[in-house]
Amino acid sequence: MILLNPAKILIGDYHYAARNNTGPQVVVYDKEYKVYRLDTDLTPHEAGQVYNLQPLNLDSLSFHPDQELAAFIMEDAAMGAGDFTGRLLWSKAGAYVCVLFSRDGGLIWSVDRLDEENLRISVFHSGDGTLAHSLDLQDPFGDSALRLMDIPGSDAVTLELAAGQDGISVYELSIQQDGLCSREMFPHRCYLSPAWHPDGSQLFTLENDAQVYACFSYPALELLQEQGLNDGEYDDEYEEEDNYPGYGMLYLQNGQVITQNTNERFFWFDPETMERIGEWAFAGYEPVPASVVFPSLDDDPSLYSQLQSCERVGSLLIFRTGSLHDIPHLLLIEEAALLEAIGSMLTRPRG
């Protein structure tokens, strides 16, 4: 196993808004609605607070890429925008689920659930909240979990509709001359919301039914590589489980991918060969016996990750600890620093 050192560890209940496109500032926030700007050495400095009526769930808050503005979902499911003084600048009534600033920050994408089977995609001007575009979209599964994500170097975004065993659909949403348009990216297959190469030319994703990885070009969405079904022999059920993919994915600038398995451990993955290169972890956060994380699994010999999730915020990669830590830890590292460290490890002579 390769061990790396994070550039910074933040201990406390900090959260962040994932983003593929880079911006001049990276902001984290806490459960008290205070926001912190990260300086060049990733030390947080308090920058104010956001309007404090939002539940702060995943994808319920998005930051402007270069201004002290936030878009958020409030407790009554209305959406709004505010600045870092805690002011509410404008709001819209509805049953909003997720929001996302556009690449340049001039627009705010949002999804309003009209009922279990119908959604309304609305795009508002971020300055005054006037409506720019809207589109009604059917939820094919009914009451799906929803997530908006930006696309590197593009003004389009993706919307994932996830319903577990019932299915998953991912749509590309874009603004064209004739208005707001949608395109189902993977019809007839259950690919997850993808990890994007930083230049936006390719995407990497997992087919949820077959549990195999795939790589596509963008915007053509041509299938470049797909992992074959694993029909290998395993010594026991734990070794087989170790090879099951998890949902965490980060597509890196050097063409490799960070993946997770079902025990949330991290691996280097080559999308050209569709094979794992090796396992890695952060020093001090190495995998532990599953029974340490889940005491009821006292006869389970497998190892479980101390880190639960990984996300990209521009060029910054953020990893968050799971239930093993009463107070969460955020581990931060710039992508360039991670690639330099892993490159030196892989080329270091052995012996």
Describe what is shown at a glance:
This protein is mainly beta. It is built from 3 helices and 31 strands.
Descriptive account of the structure:
This is WD40 repeat domain-containing protein. It comes from Paenibacillus tritici. This protein is mainly β and 351 residues long. 7% of the residues lie in helices and 48% in strands. The chain contains three helices and 31 strands. It has helices spanning 237-242, 290-293, 335-347; strands at 2-4, 8-11, 14-16, 27-30, 34-38, 44-49, 61-63, 69-73, 79-83, 88-92, 96-101, 107-115, 118-125, 131-138, 145-150, 157-162, 168-176, 179-184, 195-196, 202-207, 212-217, 223-226, 245-251, 257-261, 266-270, 275-282, 288-289, 303-304, 307-313, 316-321, 329-334. The strands form eight sheets. A five-stranded mixed β-sheet has the order 1-26-25-24-23, with helices on one face. Strands 2-31-30-29 form a four-stranded antiparallel β-sheet. It is globular and about 55 Å long. It starts with a strand and ends with a helix. The model has no long low-confidence stretch (mean pLDDT 91).
* Count of beta strands: 31
How would the global form be characterised?
globular
The largest sheet is: 5 strands, mixed
Number of helices: 3
How much helicity do the residues have?
A: under 10%
**Structural class estimated from helices and strands:** mainly beta
Q: What is the beta-strand fraction?
A: over 45%
Q: Distance N terminus to C terminus?
A: 15 Å
